[in-house]
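Lab meeting notes turned into a lecture example. A postdoc, R.K., suggested we walk through two folding results consecutively so the class can see how the record format repeats. The first protein's sequence and structure tokens come next.
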Amino acid sequence: MDKFSINPCLRTDKKQKRNGTYPVYLRIRIEGKESKIPTGIEVPKEEWNDKKKSPKNSILQGQLQAKIQKIVTYINRLELDEQKITLELVKDFCSGRKKDNPAQMSFFDYYDKFLERKRNMGIRESSIDVYKSTRNVLRKFSGGKEILISDISLSLIEDFDDYLCGDECKNMPSSRGSKHKNLRAVILDIKRHKIDVDNPYDGRFRIPQGKEKEIFLDIDELNAMRGLRGKFSHSSKRYKVLQMYLFSCYCGLRYSDIIDLKWKHVDLDKQEGKVKGVITKIQVKTQGNVSTPLYTYSRSILLELSKGKSLLKTDVNVFENISSSTVNNILSKLTEMAGIKKHITFHSARHTFATLMIQQQQMGIFELSKCLGHKTLEMTKRYVKYDLAATINSGKDVKIFG
């Protein structure tokens, strides 16, 4: 690093002001060159501690130290950028002719401000949590070290993608793709604010896409997960997550709607065809209505949690609000315990529900679309991506919904 020094001095060689004060300057020395820079602070001679090179007034001391620290920070950033530190650059910075480069801002700090703006715009907290998860993974990838906006590059994004594929993360293409989409959104926001940043997602880096077939549990795998229920205390987080996941497998609600589900949304007595009991609510994601019947196993989970039905018709939440990242981490451990080789997330429960409902001919594709809260039939067909006749035949004699 280039040698530099910053020393305050009272310019008694200047003409005394009418109020009896003299201006305080900073004597800055870099590579043998020296210049005196005004601070805008004025002090009477008797209020200047010449030994400590500082005002005796504590408030003025703080103001002077803040100005010195700002210059030191600027010089340190020049060094990090491997730029040559010159007296001219520092003088320009102090005079305001050269503004502090916003590209030297922490990417994580900008990310947090981006999330705060999103929250103020009314973005759902569940979506904020997804962005937070990406930020946390990026922080782990960096080893806790700072990443500046100017550090964003194709090589960094490629290294991050390798990290996502590694043993520590084991991300599927769809999960990796989601994290890359989050980073791309933040980078595009930086560009909209006229901050110079490299955007590797401009076509140089291709965001990984999910596989054509979404992950779901077959009947044996779902039974294996159900078989874990007796292994945990009912107050444990693993049991609570397992119940949430199984409930979604039996009714098809999204994670956000499971977390939002209140007892007032549950009617255990309403008859829906051959099924007694229904959930009716406004979806968190789409704000559209969703109505799904309660089959035997989903009904039994609700009865277990209802405290003898005393919670029915109340504003109390049915399930504990556990973050999606915690839920998916626990699910990874549960599938390992159940001997399931698939990498599942909570969303796989919706695909499990859709596939098994068709297999068992519990309802047709039109009814299923209504239960899933889809606006179009095409969306429902994406959830059941297999030949329907073959799917029905494979599960014709098996009853998994009770």
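The second example is placed directly after the first for contrast:
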Amino acid sequence: MLTLVFFETANGKRPVEEYLAKLGTKEKTRVRFGLELLEQLGLELRASHVKSMGNKLWELRIRASVNAGYFISLSPVKH
């Protein structure tokens, strides 16, 4: 199981969360589902959901509609 921590700028802004808050209901639901899967299964998700981009950087792929998708970059961080 993973704990998701979103990027925060030095002045306290959280651009990823701000972006997600602006999504429509359908898109927000799909993105949240993808993030929940990531939290539960970690990087063991099938290749259709996650892909290594090298250098410990991963991409979470979320299909929002037939013509659009969201790609969220993530990197495991030790606490």
